Amino acid sequence: DERKRWEQARAAGERLLKAGKVGAILVAGGQGTRLGFDKPKGMFPIGALSHAPLFQILAHQLLGRSRRAAAPIPYFVMTSDATHHETVAFFREHKNFGLPAGDVFFFQQGNMPAVDAESGKLLVGSDQTLTTSPDGHGAMLTALAKSGLLAEMKRRGIEYLHYHQVDNPTAIVCDPVFLGFHAELGCDMSVKVVTKRSAAERMGVAVDVDGVTQIIEYSDLPLDIAQKTDSAGALLLWAGSTAIHVFTRAFLDRLVDHGDALPFHVAHKKVPYCDADGKAVNPQRENAYKFERFIFDALPLATRALVLETDRAREFNPVKNASGDDSPETARAALATLFHGWLRAAGAQIDDATPVEISPLFALDGEEVRAKVKPGTKFSEPTILN
Ligand code: UTP
Predict the structure, then answer these.
(1) Distance in Å, CA 135 to ligand 1 centroid
(2) Ligand 1 center to 313 CA (angstroms)
(3) Which residues face 191 on adjacent strands?
(4) Would the CB of 241 count as within 6 Å of ligand 1?
(5) Of the chain's two ends, which shows fewer C-beta atoms within 10 Å, N or C?
(6) What is the pLDDT of residue 259?
(7) Which of 38, 137, 218, 270 to mutate to test the pocket of ligand 1 (most atoms within 8 A of CB)?
(8) Which atom of ligand 1 is nearest to the CA of 27?
(9) Whose CA is nearest to atom 3 of ligand 1?
């Protein structure tokens, strides 16, 4: 029965894609400070053999999905002062990864100044201008409206937007099942969630407060509440947000029209600055407050919201840190597990030690692999299928 509902949702999502009613939003304006890569995070080489950058893996998924649907899927890419020029140049250099130029749109978010945590005064950088940083992924709403792209979406007949972040190569871009459930249930906004690894994991959780669905950021959730368990010992607040969403375009329009600006969250961070004597200071401890809007604060404004649980290993493997959890190493391992699994399910022979990469242009999922790889095919050399 559950299976049937999923298949119905998939069919509904595929109809929307075929009808050209779907667009995709990629947010790529973050500074990626934890990863410590000196370029926009989307340029980070994640393919184990091909060294394909994150941008390519996501854009090729979109291209594969668009070819399958035989309909265009416009890509709306948010950048910031920190990432704009390099991102636009990178897409140009790679010919938009095969996406038609008329279907790729860049729009830029704004900045917010940082203030000194003790004095509350604005910080000045070594170039004697205000120290600023991107104003958070929630800035997407105003940035889309200002750039005229909300109007462009409407003009093109786009009704639904699949939203994903640049750091997760296993996000299923424009997943028909997710789009289908969202549309069939008449939702304004949806979120995919996975089980949190531990109470302390730094991940927002989806909760219902007095019947209103919302996401509480980890920094706003006291640890003793995050640690609460049910009688079976499972976390009560288990539903970690993957930051994969679907939006109904009309909902985005409504938020902008109503001037429902999302609130600012305050983050305590290390911010380099220039002291009163004009000396550059690189602080060793958190010295400043930064202000960011989060897109998930739109969730409680939705008339109807869907929270869909998904398989963490399959869909949530973000590149946040340089090493350890949520790093390039864990994301590559997740991709390897996925590709090996698809090949074995198709009846191919491959052992774990043989590296293999499957381009989204070869196959978007296990079914497509099964259609293209003959049972019994043996992979004994490192292989890229594309
Ligand atoms: P994160 O909150 O993980 O931030 O962004 P980050 O910039 O990538 O990394 P740190 O925290 O500095 O290490 C999640 C997603 O939201 C985007 C990022 O590009 C990423 O896709 N984002 C974040 C923006 O587009 N704009 C922002 O102002 C912040």
Answers:
(1) 10
(2) 21
(3) 245, 307
(4) no
(5) N
(6) 76
(7) 137
(8) 25
(9) 320
| Pairwise CA distance, residues 287 & 302, whole Å | 36
CA 99 to CA 111: how far, in whole Å? 29
Q: Map residue 92 onto helix, strand or coil.
A: helix
Give the alpha-carbon dihedral of 153, 154, 157, 163, to 10 degrees: 40
Q: Where residue 260 falls among pLDDT bands split at 50, 70, 90? A: confident
% of the chain with per-residue pLDDT over 70: 100
Supply the mean pLDDT for the chain: 96
307, 311, 313, 316 alpha-carbon torsion, rounded to 10°: -20
Phi, psi of 23 (to 5 degrees): -125, 170
- For 304-313, write each residue's pLDDT tens digit: 999 999 999 9
User: Where does the chain have alpha helices with state H?
Assistant: 2-18, 54-69, 84-93, 140-146, 149-155, 176-184, 223-226, 249-257, 312-315, 328-345, 366-372
Q: Is a pLDDT exceeding 90 seen at residue 341? A: yes
Which residues lie below 8 Å from residue 53, measured CB to CB, with a gap of 6+? 42, 43, 44, 45, 46, 47, 90
pLDDT value at position 219?
A: 87
For 113-150, write each residue's pLDDT tens digit: 999 999 999 999 988 899 999 999 999 999 999 999 99
Ligand 1 centroid to Cα of residue 28, in Å, is 7
- C-alpha to C-alpha distance for 245 and 350, rounded to whole angstroms: 34
Structure tokens at 208: 């219902």
Atom of ligand 1 nearest to the CA of 29: 25
Ranking 36-50, 126-140, 156-170, 354-368 by mean pLDDT, the lowest is 126-140
Q: Which of 182, 250, 251, 171 is nearest to 12 (CA)?
A: 182
Closest CA relative to residue 54, chosen from 240, 317, 386, 242: 317
pLDDT of 18 reads 98
Residues 6+ apart with CB under 8 A from 340: 350, 352, 356
